[in-house]
Amino acid sequence: MGRLAILGALHEEIADLLAAMEPGATVHRIAMRDFHVGVLWGTPCVIALSRIGKVAAAATASIVIQEFKATRVVFTGLAGGLHADVAVGDVVVASSLMQHDMDARPLFGQYEIPLLGCARFGTDPALSASLRESAEAFVRAHAAAAERGAARPAPKVHCGLIATGDVFVNDNDEAGRLRHRLPQALCVEMEGGAMAQVCHEFGIPYAVLRVVSDRADHTAKADFTDFLVNVARVYTAGILAPLLRSGALSDA
Ligand code: ADE
Q1: Which H or E run contains 196?
Q2: Residue 118's beta-bridge partner residues?
Q3: What integer pLDDT is reported at residue 147 of this predicted model?
Q4: Is 13 a residue of the active site?
Q5: What is the pLDDT of residue 148?
Q6: Which of 5, 99, 106, 123 could cross-link with 193 by S-S, CB 3.0 to 4.6 Å?
Q7: Is the dihedral of CA 19, 21, 22, 27 positive or negative?
Q8: Residue 216 CB–ligand 1 contact under 6 Å
Q9: pTM for the whole structure
């Protein structure tokens, strides 16, 4: 059975996954990162903290594919909501990703990855559909709990374009410019589009799961930090656990 790679940019985004690995997992240190190899909820996995940004994500994706023979890659973590329909607490599953800070004009079109001939990377439909279904089930359970007293409105699950760049977007003007340039983009984050490019180049299926922590505006930093500490790990584990237990992310 091939190995599933699960990557996150910050420790809190993968903490509950590492804690849930079956006894006997091994840790391998390569390029200043720890790669945790073992079994998670019945599925052979390699889990790694990529750190933040496109270069970090690309390096980590290359290593899990080349050194650990990952046959599928899932990136999970937080994102800033861009689209008007996307609220804090919602979940976004990427159907495609692009790099909003790639601009080699006039040599190539805006956003086009030079010499690759494309600007958007489509995720694996089966992996993404599994993530979406599990996210919807998680959100339904969460909404039921909310009806019993919690303050947040019922979260939604969205599927669509994610914009990636080496920028933490935390002002209204910058967020507005991105919305104007990329009206289809649901959310913004700092790794998915780079991992997608690497997986595309290796021919490895991939998917991206993001929880919306902020609206990419002037309160983004406080909202992000609150979400990272209190919510991110619960969502990630709550969505991935049933999928891994059911074998839906295995390729055997
Ligand atoms: N990840 C979470 N929130 C973000 C934001 N506002 N900008 C970029 N990446 C993010």
Answers
A1: helix 192-202
A2: 113
A3: 57
A4: yes
A5: 58
A6: 99
A7: negative
A8: yes
A9: 0.95
Structure confidence at residue 45 (pLDDT): 98
List all residues 6 or more positions away from 49 whose beta carbon is below 8 Å from its beta carbon: 7, 8, 9, 10, 11, 14, 33, 34
Confidence (pLDDT) at 144:
67
**For position 220, what pLDDT does the model report?**
83
- Residue ranges in the chain modelled with pLDDT below 50: none
Q: Cα dihedral angle (177, 182, 186, 192), rounded to 10 degrees?
A: -100
- Residues found in the chain: 252
pLDDT of residue 4: 98
Nearest to 162 by CA among 134, 139, 138, 195: 195
How many CB atoms neighbour CB 53 within 10 A?
18
Q: How many CB atoms lie within 10 A of CB 114?
A: 10
Residue entry with tokens 């990419």: 216
Q: Which atom of ligand 1 is nearest to the CA of 169?
A: 7
Other C-beta atoms closer than 10 Å to the C-beta of 125 total 11
Annotated active-site residue 174? The verdict is no
